[in-house]
Amino acid sequence: MSRTLNCIVAVCPNMGIGNNGNLPWHPKRLSNEFKHFQKMTMTPTVEGKQNVVIMGRKTWFSIPERNRPLKNRINIVLSRALNLIGLQWIWEAMEAPCLRRLFVTRVQQQFDCDTFIPEISADKYRLLPGFPGVAEGMQEESGLQYEFEVYESIEN
């Protein structure tokens, strides 16, 4: 059975993902985008299994305490300050050959950001024309426009 590593992220045009420990567009809420995140992370591809959600320490602490850990998911929190043997296993799992999908929410407005992810390499990923269960076209909430994109790795 081949594995698939799915990553999910919401980004500004400059690939910003955070500012001062919050989403860049905070305090605006994108409820439907959040429901999309929940659905994608809570729905396992194998019946009887749970998805693993890997997040950084700042993301963990940005989640209200009453909502931690994220329910119906295995939560793993990464931190540069911790030196755990288990981290080696996580990095090996993330580097292992497998199909990779990137579920990206492209927020159309720029906000101040202090945390970024790299651009998505066209040499490594292709944009899919659609994906089951992912809404197509421009979405709008709280005066913000965004759209969902799904990328798939070119090489396994």
UniProtKB/TrEMBL annotation:
Residues of the DHFR domain: 4-156
Catalytic activity: (6S)-5,6,7,8-tetrahydrofolate + NADP(+) = 7,8-dihydrofolate + NADPH + H(+)
Involved pathway(s): Cofactor biosynthesis; tetrahydrofolate biosynthesis; 5,6,7,8-tetrahydrofolate from 7,8-dihydrofolate: step 1/1
EC number: 1.5.1.3
GO molecular function, one term: dihydrofolate reductase activity
Keywords: NADP, Oxidoreductase
GO cellular component term, pick one: mitochondrion
GO biological process, one term: tetrahydrofolate biosynthetic process
SUPFAM superfamilies reported in the protein's UniProt record: Dihydrofolate reductase-like
PANTHER family membership: DIHYDROFOLATE REDUCTASE
Family in the record: Belongs to the dihydrofolate reductase family.
Name by which UniProt lists this protein: dihydrofolate reductase
Organism placement in taxonomy: Eukaryota, Metazoa, Chordata, Craniata, Vertebrata
